[in-house]
Design goal:
- InterPro entries: Prefoldin, Prefoldin_subunit_alpha, UXT.
- This is EOG090X0MWD.
- It is a single chain.
- This protein is an alpha+beta fold and 153 residues long.
- It has a single domain, classed as Helix Hairpins.
- The protein has three helices and four strands; from the N terminus they run ααββββα.
- A two-stranded antiparallel ribbon has the order 1-2. A two-stranded antiparallel sheet has the order 3-4.
- α1 packs antiparallel against α3.
- The longest helix is centred in the first third of the chain and has 48 residues.
Length: 153
Amino acid sequence: MSAVDQKVEKFETYLNDVLRESLKSHLSEQNKICDEIAEYLKLKNLAEVLQRPDVCTTPLKTKVDLGCNFYVQAEAPDASKLLVSVGFGFFVELTLEEVVTFVDKKVALLKNASAHVNTEIAEIKARIDVMLQGLRELQNISGEIPSEPRFVF
Protein backbone atom coordinates (compact mmCIF):
# COMPACT_ATOMS: atom_id res chain seq x y z
CA MET A 1 0.00 0.00 0.00
CA SER A 2 1.39 3.38 -0.93
CA ALA A 3 1.61 6.37 1.39
CA VAL A 4 -1.25 8.09 -0.43
CA ASP A 5 -3.51 5.07 0.00
CA GLN A 6 -2.71 4.97 3.71
CA LYS A 7 -3.55 8.67 4.08
CA VAL A 8 -6.78 8.20 2.15
CA GLU A 9 -7.76 5.28 4.37
CA LYS A 10 -6.90 7.26 7.50
CA PHE A 11 -8.95 10.26 6.33
CA GLU A 12 -11.91 8.05 5.36
CA THR A 13 -11.82 6.33 8.75
CA TYR A 14 -11.79 9.69 10.54
CA LEU A 15 -14.56 10.98 8.29
CA ASN A 16 -16.84 7.99 8.81
CA ASP A 17 -16.06 7.08 12.42
CA VAL A 18 -15.66 10.50 13.99
CA LEU A 19 -17.23 13.28 11.95
CA ARG A 20 -20.33 11.51 10.66
CA GLU A 21 -21.04 9.94 14.07
CA SER A 22 -20.66 13.34 15.70
CA LEU A 23 -23.06 14.77 13.13
CA LYS A 24 -25.61 12.04 13.89
CA SER A 25 -25.42 12.68 17.63
CA HIS A 26 -25.77 16.45 17.17
CA LEU A 27 -28.75 15.97 14.84
CA SER A 28 -30.47 13.70 17.36
CA GLU A 29 -29.79 16.28 20.09
CA GLN A 30 -31.32 18.94 17.83
CA ASN A 31 -34.41 16.77 17.34
CA LYS A 32 -34.77 16.29 21.12
CA ILE A 33 -34.59 20.04 21.67
CA CYS A 34 -37.21 20.67 18.96
CA ASP A 35 -39.49 18.02 20.49
CA GLU A 36 -39.11 19.62 23.91
CA ILE A 37 -39.94 23.05 22.47
CA ALA A 38 -43.06 21.59 20.87
CA GLU A 39 -44.14 20.06 24.20
CA TYR A 40 -43.72 23.37 26.02
CA LEU A 41 -45.65 25.22 23.32
CA LYS A 42 -48.49 22.71 23.71
CA LEU A 43 -48.44 23.37 27.45
CA LYS A 44 -48.57 27.13 26.86
CA ASN A 45 -51.50 26.69 24.48
CA LEU A 46 -53.32 24.58 27.09
CA ALA A 47 -52.70 27.20 29.79
CA GLU A 48 -54.02 29.95 27.53
CA VAL A 49 -57.14 27.92 26.75
CA LEU A 50 -57.72 27.20 30.43
CA GLN A 51 -57.44 30.93 31.22
CA ARG A 52 -60.62 31.64 29.30
CA PRO A 53 -63.52 32.30 31.69
CA ASP A 54 -65.92 29.80 30.08
CA VAL A 55 -63.46 26.90 30.46
CA CYS A 56 -62.25 27.53 34.01
CA THR A 57 -65.70 27.41 35.67
CA THR A 58 -66.50 23.81 34.73
CA PRO A 59 -64.53 20.73 35.80
CA LEU A 60 -61.98 19.74 33.20
CA LYS A 61 -62.59 16.38 31.53
CA THR A 62 -59.58 15.00 29.73
CA LYS A 63 -57.69 11.87 28.77
CA VAL A 64 -54.35 11.15 30.43
CA ASP A 65 -51.59 9.14 28.79
CA LEU A 66 -50.38 6.43 31.18
CA GLY A 67 -47.61 5.44 28.80
CA CYS A 68 -47.33 3.56 25.52
CA ASN A 69 -50.31 5.55 24.19
CA PHE A 70 -52.64 4.00 26.79
CA TYR A 71 -55.16 6.71 27.73
CA VAL A 72 -57.66 6.86 30.58
CA GLN A 73 -60.39 9.39 31.23
CA ALA A 74 -59.77 11.86 34.03
CA GLU A 75 -61.59 14.79 35.58
CA ALA A 76 -59.94 17.74 37.29
CA PRO A 77 -62.36 19.74 39.44
CA ASP A 78 -59.97 22.72 39.66
CA ALA A 79 -57.91 23.50 36.56
CA SER A 80 -56.55 26.82 37.81
CA LYS A 81 -53.15 25.27 38.61
CA LEU A 82 -50.96 22.84 36.71
CA LEU A 83 -48.04 20.63 37.69
CA VAL A 84 -45.09 21.44 35.44
CA SER A 85 -41.89 19.45 35.11
CA VAL A 86 -38.98 21.82 35.68
CA GLY A 87 -36.28 19.19 35.16
CA PHE A 88 -34.40 16.53 37.09
CA GLY A 89 -37.68 14.85 38.05
CA PHE A 90 -39.03 17.88 39.92
CA PHE A 91 -42.56 19.16 39.41
CA VAL A 92 -43.86 22.56 40.49
CA GLU A 93 -47.48 23.57 40.92
CA LEU A 94 -47.97 26.81 38.98
CA THR A 95 -50.93 29.03 38.25
CA LEU A 96 -51.92 29.42 34.63
CA GLU A 97 -50.27 32.85 34.38
CA GLU A 98 -47.07 31.46 35.89
CA VAL A 99 -47.16 28.57 33.42
CA VAL A 100 -47.24 30.97 30.47
CA THR A 101 -44.34 32.99 31.91
CA PHE A 102 -42.33 29.85 32.69
CA VAL A 103 -42.91 28.40 29.22
CA ASP A 104 -41.84 31.63 27.52
CA LYS A 105 -38.56 31.64 29.45
CA LYS A 106 -37.97 27.92 28.94
CA VAL A 107 -38.63 28.14 25.19
CA ALA A 108 -36.19 31.07 24.93
CA LEU A 109 -33.51 28.97 26.66
CA LEU A 110 -34.23 25.99 24.43
CA LYS A 111 -34.04 28.17 21.32
CA ASN A 112 -30.62 29.39 22.43
CA ALA A 113 -29.53 25.79 22.94
CA SER A 114 -30.92 24.93 19.51
CA ALA A 115 -28.99 27.78 17.91
CA HIS A 116 -25.80 26.58 19.61
CA VAL A 117 -26.34 23.03 18.36
CA ASN A 118 -27.08 24.40 14.87
CA THR A 119 -23.73 26.19 14.79
CA GLU A 120 -21.98 22.99 15.89
CA ILE A 121 -23.80 21.06 13.15
CA ALA A 122 -22.70 23.65 10.59
CA GLU A 123 -19.09 23.36 11.79
CA ILE A 124 -19.17 19.57 11.52
CA LYS A 125 -20.65 19.75 8.02
CA ALA A 126 -17.92 22.21 7.03
CA ARG A 127 -15.27 19.83 8.37
CA ILE A 128 -16.83 16.99 6.39
CA ASP A 129 -16.74 19.10 3.22
CA VAL A 130 -13.09 20.00 3.82
CA MET A 131 -12.24 16.33 4.40
CA LEU A 132 -14.04 15.30 1.21
CA GLN A 133 -12.24 17.99 -0.76
CA GLY A 134 -8.91 16.83 0.67
CA LEU A 135 -9.73 13.24 -0.26
CA ARG A 136 -10.57 14.32 -3.80
CA GLU A 137 -7.23 16.10 -4.09
CA LEU A 138 -5.32 13.11 -2.70
CA GLN A 139 -7.00 10.78 -5.16
CA ASN A 140 -6.82 13.25 -8.06
CA ILE A 141 -10.59 13.23 -8.53
CA SER A 142 -12.27 16.37 -9.81
CA GLY A 143 -15.07 17.74 -7.65
CA GLU A 144 -17.30 18.52 -10.58
CA ILE A 145 -19.93 16.12 -11.78
CA PRO A 146 -19.31 15.36 -15.44
CA SER A 147 -22.18 16.45 -17.60
CA GLU A 148 -23.74 13.71 -19.64
CA PRO A 149 -24.72 14.38 -23.23
CA ARG A 150 -28.39 15.13 -23.66
CA PHE A 151 -30.30 13.28 -26.30
CA VAL A 152 -32.71 15.34 -28.33
CA PHE A 153 -34.88 12.43 -29.43
